[in-house]
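The following block was generated as part of the benchmark described in Methods. Ligand: zinc ion.
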Amino acid sequence: MGRTMSFYDLRDAMALPGCPVCRLKANAVRRHLDNLLWESVNDAGVRREIRNARGFCQQHAWQLIEGGSSLGVVIIMHDVMQHVLQLLETAEFQPPAPTLRQRARSALDPSRAAPANAGLLAKLRPQAPCPVCVHAETTERVLISTLVQELLGEDGLLPALRASEGLCLLHLRQALAQTPNAEVFDALVGVQREIWRRLTDQLAELIRKEDYRFRHEARGEEKGASLRALAVLSGPRIITSDAG
Ligand SMILES: [Zn+2]
Ligand SMILES: [Zn+2]
């Protein structure tokens, strides 16, 4: 049976700590950022995309300089700043001038009154989403689709998923949204239930051992359970160095 790259990537990631989709998504983001900095920085189309997005989202912007600042970052920032500056240089004050309809509406709901400088605001606003987010979401979609399509059957991903730390809440929701039938649903939800039950028990065990009567007991597999639960509910920790 022909397997895709995503299949092997998922199987390998399931042998490592944390949600496998989160891990592969983070790897894809890192590769994409490196690629941006070292290869696509002079690509006119890529530069336009970044300009339209007014740079990157907060998370990906700071991830750009994780490996230290580079000429690529300088070139990209210069390009976007030049563009944003140009928008300001031709700008003139525009008073809040509501149309008749808006005036009628704002009488009912003052919070909906037209703002001052509406034209400039519209131009300064990102005209496209963060290009790194777009890439991450595409990767995520392919991985989730592979996961639900290739979970069952001979040499499917189910045993690897069962032995893993499972999907995070976000990726379980995405997998449920793409689940094609009741068999896949039962397998997926069954495994997640096992894994989350174990994690919840580990949290209870941590609380129990905080009691002075049990404090002398050695920590077992519950060690780190609160960090694992944080990652399940909120996504993995993004460690950003102070490079600059
Ligand atoms: Zn995840
Ligand atoms: Zn982003």
